[in-house]
Design brief:
The protein has about 325 residues and is an alpha+beta fold. Helix content is about 30%, strand content about 30%. It contains 11 helices and 19 strands.
Length: about 325
Amino acid sequence: MRLRRVRLVGGDDAIAVWDDEATRWTAIPSAIAAVGEPSFAELPADDMIALLAGGEETREALRALCVAARERNADAECELVPLLPVAPVLMRAFANSERHWIQGARGLVRLNLPRALPAIRAIEAVTRRPFPPFRPGKLFYRQPAFYLGNALTFVPSGAEAPWPAYTKRLDFEIELGAIVVRPLRDATLQQARDAIGGFVVVNDLSARDTQWDELRNGLFGPVVKTKTFASAMSAEIVTADEILPRVRDLHAEVKVNGELWSRTGTADMRWSFEEMLAHASAGEDVHAGELVSAGTLPDGCGLELGRWIAPGDELELTIEHVGSVRNRIGSPR
């Protein structure tokens, strides 16, 4: 099931559900008011986390509401404007692809130390392995790893993506994100799986020249001003029941100004969402409303591809069965 926030004719925001039969978005509060059946009045129509947490029972009620709205020709008119489907209370951004890590490290060297590349290529040719410093640290292979991103700087699909004036190398990262809908602490894998309410597409925008400086000279690693200025999220949430069974078999692509830059997918995920969430909850609370990002898909950023976006570019990141996040790149300011 697909859900999103929409703008009602009167100007208020509301949650809408995609009606496959009518091929339209049905605004839940408007449909409840138009249908007038008391059984629908208990739906948490203005609370996305509660709707997702309701599971199959709530999804069945939403399907029944769509049927009742169609039968009564209920007015469900709404406007699709750039709105976040949910405002995350926290962002846990995981590193989950060895190939992305290696290719990203190679890209940073290509960008900043190009003279070192011939020697590195020679070493890789002899050893038939990635250059050892390009590989993630040993902890990557023992347990999931994440940093805490800035949940307050998300922009919705359709909005302009900001370009901070301190960077000349703005980059995108296509990632699969999960919305947590139940609190966790010291969770089992099953408890972690049950706490996932839905999935979104995330663009974790990055300042690559800043990242190089923070990586080599900073105190807190390469994810401070490199990352905190903005991220983008798809307008739609797809409920977990549709994605979890196929979560490692999702194809994805990146387009810039309509040109295909990359095809990628989720098959390279080292850790499952259950493992990531269970690890995050060890000894601490994970709250409903958190966003868990599984990390950049391999070949899912310009740093890996050796291609760079520019102000005014139209960026479209798509993960099949989940959706797309589309943003125009703003000018440096």
